[in-house]
Amino acid sequence: MFKAIRISILLFVLFFVVMSAWLTQARSTDWNNSLWIKIYPINADGSTAAADYIDRLKVEHFSGIETFVARETERYESSLKRPVRVELGTPIREQPPELPAEPNVLKIMWWSLKMRWWAGSVTDSQDSIEPDVRIFVRYHSPDHPVTLENSVGLQKGMVGIVNGFASRRHRGTNNVIIAHEFLHTLGATDKYSPTDGHPIGPDGIAEPDRRPLYPQRFAEIMGGRIALAEDDSVIPKSLKYAVIGPQTAREINLID
User: Which of 64, 154, 158, 243 makes a 20 to 30 Å CA pair with 39?
Assistant: First the structure.
């Protein structure tokens, strides 16, 4: 009898967690209310350059993300005036759990659980009300090489980890990557090659009907780069040069 009760309680908790996640995800893409994105800076390499840059950060430095989402949702006839609201949190002193070096399904699932628990625990002291989406931006000194594409956005938990450079010159590029990972949390999928990082057409190219096709003028946000040629592409300098393509719009429920 006790075992049956315990199993019933565990099943109820699991059902509650699954339903809560489903309802949160459904609300996040109904586009009826603004989504609250909170950005938490992290000094990724312990450098003075990153520390100084974080000290000077202002919420206005991320305004391009709000402008981008508002512009693109309006293109798809959304009437919501401010679809996302970005706020800046206080710096986080801990580093997030590292992705497994040799990932498999079980390792990724375990990392995802650790990541979601970590995100909640390190923000408890500053978030009496939880934001809809948490984005942790790990700032690196611009003098240190780092692969910015090694960022991640989790739909379950609505958490993103972004690698960026601690430099005013890279502010626009950082915002492109933040917007990319934010859309991952809403269910958007990558549209670039995992081998070379180039956008995959037609869905990963901003203007697939453009003639000649190359060079493109904009980046499809989930394609990640402006396609200059079939084997050449660059990360846009700002979200002014990025768009949400039709397939991404379907994935995040902007269109049917």
Answer: 243
The token pair that represents 59 in the structure block: 């919420």
Amino acid at 182: F
Residues whose CB falls within 8 Å of the CB of residue 219, separated by 6 or more in sequence, listed in order:
176, 199, 206, 225, 226, 227, 235, 236, 241, 242, 243
* Contacts of residue 31, Cβ cutoff 8 Å, sequence gap at least 6: 73, 78, 80, 83, 253, 254
CATH of domain 30-187: 3.40.390
Question: Could you report the per-residue pLDDT of 71-121, keeping only the tens digit for each?
Answer: 999 999 888 889 999 999 999 999 999 877 777 888 888 888 898 999 999
Burial of 226 (0-12, 13-18, 19+ CB in 10 A): buried
**Cβ(131)–Cβ(38) under 8 Å?**
yes
For the chain, the domains span 30-187, 191-256
CA distance 39 to 183: 14
Strand ranges of the sheet holding 133-140, from the earlier edge strand across to the other edge: 84-88, 35-43, 133-140, 159-165, 152-154
Note the pTM of the prediction, 2 decimals. 0.88
